[in-house]
Structures are given as C-alpha cells and as structure tokens.
C-alpha cells in the first residue's frame, strides 16, 4: 500500500523545502517503500489528519498516522524490518538522537537565519503573514534584519561543521560505508538551504559539500528532483 | 587471560589522567574482561611493545597488540562478541566516529587549554620538559599563558555542550538506555579534567554534569577510583 506523506510547501508546490520533510522523503526511499507526497502550506498543517500535529512531516500508512521525522524513521524500521535499516542497530538509534540535536542546535540556527527572507519569499500570501509574525517573535527583530549578518557569520558557521568534516576523513557517510537516517538528518538542513536560497554556505571543495552532493545522488538522485534556488 | 593496558601517568602513578586511556579502561570494564593497568610516563610511551605507537592506550591481549582507543574498542567487540557490545551494531560504530570527532574538536580544545598547567604540574621532571616543549609549540605561547582566559571562555564552552545536554532530555546515555563506547569517549574528556584540575567547568545541576556523575558510577564506580583534583 502506498504511504501518504504530508509535506510543507510554499506557493510553488513543486519545490517542497522543509528540512524535516526531506528527512522523511529520504527515509521512505531508503526503505524502498511506495509513497505519495502531498503538500500543505504552513497555515494548514494544523488541520492534517484531524489535527494530529502542529508540524510536518506526518505520514499515513494504512490505518496508522505518525508525525515527526525521527518517530517516522523508528516506525518504518519497526514496521518494515526486512527492508534496509535506517539506524543500523540500537546504538545507531541512540546516536542518531545526538546527531539530531547537533544538527538542530548547530546547523539549523545559522541556516534558518541566513535563508529566512528567501523562505518568506517562497510562501503564499496568507503563509507569509503567519511566517513573519511567528519568526519575528522568535528572532526578536524584523524579518529583513535577520539575514543581514550572514556573510559576517559564515566563517564561524563553517568552523562549527568541523566534527562532520573531520569524520568524513574516516568514512563517506555518517552511517559509515553507506547512509543511514543520521545522514538524512543533516542532509535535510542543507537541502532546505539549497532549495530556498541562492546563498552559498559551503565551498565546493569542502568535504561537507562533497558529502552533500553524494547525498543528493542517493535513491536515483531524489534530492536533485528539486533544483537549487537561483 | 588478563589483558595488559598501557596507560599514561604523571609523577603519582596512582592518578592516571589520560582521556583516551580512560576510554579504554571503561571499555574493558564494559566487556567484563580482566585487565591489568601498567602506567607509563609521556617520555616512555614510544618504547612500549617495541615502539608500536606514539600514543597510549595500547593493549596486549595474548599475542595481539592494539593501539588507539577506538581501534581497541572495535577489536574488543570483534574478539569478544558474546560479551556486551560497545557499539550496539554497525550504525553505532559509524556514529561513534562522529561523536569522537565532536568530542575531540569541541570538548578537548577547551578542557586541554584550561587544565594545561595543572597537567604539567602532575608530571615527573623529564616529562615536564617534553610537555612544555611540545605544548608551547602547539599553542604558540608559554604554558603559563594558555589557561589565563579559561574563565572568560567558560560560558561559550558550556554552550558548545548544548547538543549533548539537549540529547540527555531524551535518554540517559549517548548509547540510549545504557552506556556505549560513545559515552566513554566523552566521559574520558571530563575525567581527564576532573583528575588533573580543580577548575570546575560544569555547574552541578547541568544535565551534562549529572550524566558525568552517572558515568562515574558505572562498573562499580571505576571512574571514582581516582579522586577529583583539589
């Protein structure tokens, strides 16, 4: 049976950009499961499946509805244990949580601020109003002011990626010789940036950029099905 | 057969402090293996087992000699597969490398600088000469100057621990419900600090401090067998 994936999109529904939804897109592809992507704008997320979640992704798999990219990955591994694992055992599940928190607290804050205005410009009018209001409260300043220092902060951001960069001298993926959900966690953040903003955060020869390109190639180049922002 | 562990020590051989050796001490205890700890000063590390390594830990297990804490953990899991795993599967092995790089590049630089003079004062005279020379080259300044800004940099250091702190809201160990080598990696760094310096880097109610205390309790309180520096 085809799994239904509810995924965030802006005015152009052919360019879904949510980092967390991209984690689930690659998770479903990794498991080799059939899935249908259904886009929702920010202001309609709360109405999905009777209001089960304030955020996407949400999947429906037959009678089962599961929100949250990490919970979805766990659900998929439990439900389809004969398909390729997303975690590579219990140690991989536990460590993926550390990597999720690292990505969320190290990678997301800079990228989210750097792309904030670009994301806003991708949204439909009613979503723009919601987005401006919620993000201006979060950042404590006007939307237009948030990305202003992205050039100044870029070198420091690149330095925070050093653990990932250094790890890539040992192995091609966070998952080891092949990718796991831990890769999709960090991939989601850079894919969000790639689709929403023309601002280049990585130098082309950065091992992190080379790893990201490798992730874009996975599962038949699924990540490249949406072009980079120009 | 008893495994022999070569471990770094200063003038007082009852207070081994090396972060990497502590990783291996807990790894051996985790596997429930008998081991004998043999201390070596900095200046005699290169002579161990015919000069197999420039660094410790090194273990001898019968005919097999293995250097490097990560390689030792892999060796122990491969050689003693029926004893508790140090990695919890292939995903755990791969992710442990990320955590090692994170610890080495985020936790070690600050702690190593903050405790530098304290470590120097623990060493025997000939080791002090080697240590001063090698560390002054590495830091590009006099040993006495390196820890001077540790108070000023402390808040920023604590902030870099946020991924670990945030993960601890989900699970008690990096390994999940129970510890794995990934925990011993980060434990080693804080144990190094605890044994060599009275400088307190963590507030007592910091979840990272609570996790560290939990690690000190493991394997019969093995980490507490050396008292904190005063």
From TrEMBL, chains A, B:
<dbReference type="InterPro" id="IPR036249">
    <property type="entry name" value="Thioredoxin-like_sf"/>
</dbReference>
<dbReference type="Pfam" id="PF22041">
    <property type="entry name" value="GST_C_7"/>
</dbReference>
<dbReference type="Pfam" id="PF13409">
    <property type="entry name" value="GST_N_2"/>
</dbReference>
<feature type="domain" description="GST N-terminal">
    <location>
        <begin position="8"/>
        <end position="84"/>
    </location>
</feature>
<dbReference type="InterPro" id="IPR054416">
    <property type="entry name" value="GST_UstS-like_C"/>
</dbReference>
<dbReference type="InterPro" id="IPR004045">
    <property type="entry name" value="Glutathione_S-Trfase_N"/>
</dbReference>
<protein>
    <submittedName>
        <fullName>Beta-aryl ether-cleaving protein</fullName>
    </submittedName>
</protein>
<dbReference type="InterPro" id="IPR036282">
    <property type="entry name" value="Glutathione-S-Trfase_C_sf"/>
</dbReference>
């Amino acid at each position: 049976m085809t799994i239904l994936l509810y995924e965030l999109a802006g005015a152009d529904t052919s360019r879904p950009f949510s980092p967390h939804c991209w984690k689930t897109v690659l998770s479903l592809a990794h498991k080799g499961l059939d899935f249908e992507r259904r886009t929702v704008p920010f202001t309609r997320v709360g109405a999905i499946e009777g209001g089960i979640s304030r955020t996407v992704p949400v999947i429906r798999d037959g009678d089962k509805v599961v929100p949250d990219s990490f919970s979805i990955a766990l659900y998929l591994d439990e439900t389809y244990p004969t398909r390729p694992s997303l975690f590579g055992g219990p140690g991989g599940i536990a460590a993926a949580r550390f990597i999720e928190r690292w990505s969320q607290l190290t990678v997301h804050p800079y990228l989210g601020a750097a792309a904030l205005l670009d994301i806003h410009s991708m949204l439909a009018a009613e979503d723009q109003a919601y987005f401006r209001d919620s993000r201006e409260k979060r950042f404590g300043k006007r939307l237009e002011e948030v990305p202003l220092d992205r050039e100044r902060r870029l070198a420091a951001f690149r330095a925070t990626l050093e653990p990932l960069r250094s790890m890539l001298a040992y192995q091609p993926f966070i998952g080891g010789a092949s990718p796991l959900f831990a890769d999709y966690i960090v991939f989601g953040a850079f894919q969000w940036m790639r689709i929403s903003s023309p601002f280049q955060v990585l130098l082309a020869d950065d091992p992190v950029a080379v790893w990201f390109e490798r992730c874009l190639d996975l599962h038949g180049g699924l990540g490249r099905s949406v072009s980079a922002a120009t």
